[in-house]
Write a structure and sequence with these properties.
It is built from 17 helices and ten strands. By secondary structure, it is of the alpha/beta class. One of its GO terms (biological process) is melatonin biosynthetic process.
């Protein structure tokens, strides 16, 4: 075997060796793109460009973000990464770099700036020290029996992601704000492309609906639908008041209010198979309590889930869960990209 290794090394040319090293280093440093994105979000660089008429020089950016005088050259280096990765565009204006927004960075405009949609908080959810730190425990999680029995997040932090959200008000607020942003964008897309799935519905309960962004979007488009949001008591206690939405504080494993439709967005991919079956059985009970002829709908969106021991599923895996939970059939409706609507029938 040693001889084969030596032969393989001899086959690799100098150029191949150099290219292999470059590719390896590129993979090692890929996280810098995410860190740069988070920095741009926290510095509100998109706001600075927008408030400067849609184009800003490095000096303009420095003045707007309150840059320390010694960091101007470092900001230039940061912007190089961000333009290379497509977050901003750069133009040469009489020898001076001028930066403009792209469709991606327009999503990073803050609440105080005119915008259609914003996703700055979801950046903070994804590019978050506690989430990133979890990934450093992958080796232990894959190989150590005690670690393998819990979620990747628990290996790194000693508690579940949901326990940290409940016990750390700042982290919880950030997480829930990110979910509101994601829901607002997702529902806009769904209501544009597949609004017919909501027609003919009298009542809907959004399970794990947080602060009610999904339900609010449904009510705005379909005022006659009676919407209920179910989430843990400490979450619904902080939800903004809405006269058109009823909030219920409860555990989805214990109780789901009766409705024509039970909606789950970014819920089932948080849980392993057996827990998903339990949740779906509660959904079936909620639907049966209202009308056995009603339908259940799930909105499933792709997020990074392994760190909470969640899982994204293929169709045959969803089918197994639905049938074990006692449902008779289902239909998958592609919406956009990785997002789909799944209708599940009692």
């Amino acid at each position: 075997m040693a001889q084969n290794v030596q032969e393989n090394e001899q086959v690799m040319s100098t150029e191949d060796l150099l290219q292999a090293q470059i590719e390896l280093y590129h993979h090692c440093l890929a996280f810098i793109k995410s860190m740069a994105l988070r920095a741009a979000t926290d510095l509100r660089i998109p706001d600075a460009i927008h408030c400067n008429g849609g184009a800003a020089t490095l000096t303009d950016l420095a003045a707007h973000v309150g840059l320390h005088p010694t960091k101007l050259s470092h900001l230039r280096r940061l912007m190089r990464v961000l333009t290379l990765s497509g977050i901003f565009t750069v133009h040469d204006d009489d020898g001076e770099a001028t930066y403009t927004l792209t469709r991606v960075s327009r999503l990073l405009l803050s609440d105080g700036v005119e915008r259609t949609h914003g996703l700055s908080q979801i950046v903070r959810v994804f590019v978050n020290p506690v989430a990133v730190a979890s990934q450093f425990s992958l080796h232990e999680w894959f190989t150590v029996e005690q670690a393998a029995a819990v979620s990747l997040f628990e290996v790194a932090h000693g508690c579940t992601r949901w326990e940290m959200i409940a016990n750390d008000s700042k982290d919880g607020s950030m997480f829930n704000a990110g979910m509101v942003e994601d829901s607002s964008v997702a529902m806009d897309i769904i209501l544009r492309k597949s609004s017919n799935v909501f027609r003919g519905i009298n009542s809907l309960v959004d399970v794990g609906g947080g602060y009610g962004a999904v339900a609010a979007a449904v009510v705005r488009a379909f005022p006659d639908i009676k919407c209920t949001v179910l989430d843990l008591p400490h979450i619904v206690a902080k939800a903004p008041s809405n006269n058109n939405i009823q909030f219920v504080g409860s555990d989805l494993f214990e109780f789901i209010p009766a409705a024509d439709v039970v909606l789950l967005k970014c819920i089932l991919h948080c849980w392993q198979h057996d827990d998903c079956v339990k949740i779906m059985r509660r959904c079936k009970e909620a639907i049966s309590a209202r009308d056995a002829g009603g339908k259940e709908m799930q909105l499933l969106f792709d997020v990074f889930m392994m760190y909470t021991d969640g899982i994204e599923r293929e169709e045959h895996e969803w089918k197994k869960i639905f049938l074990e939970a006692g449902f008779s059939d289902y239909k998958i409706i592609p919406v956009l990209g990785v997002r789909s609507i799944i209708e599940v029938y009692p």
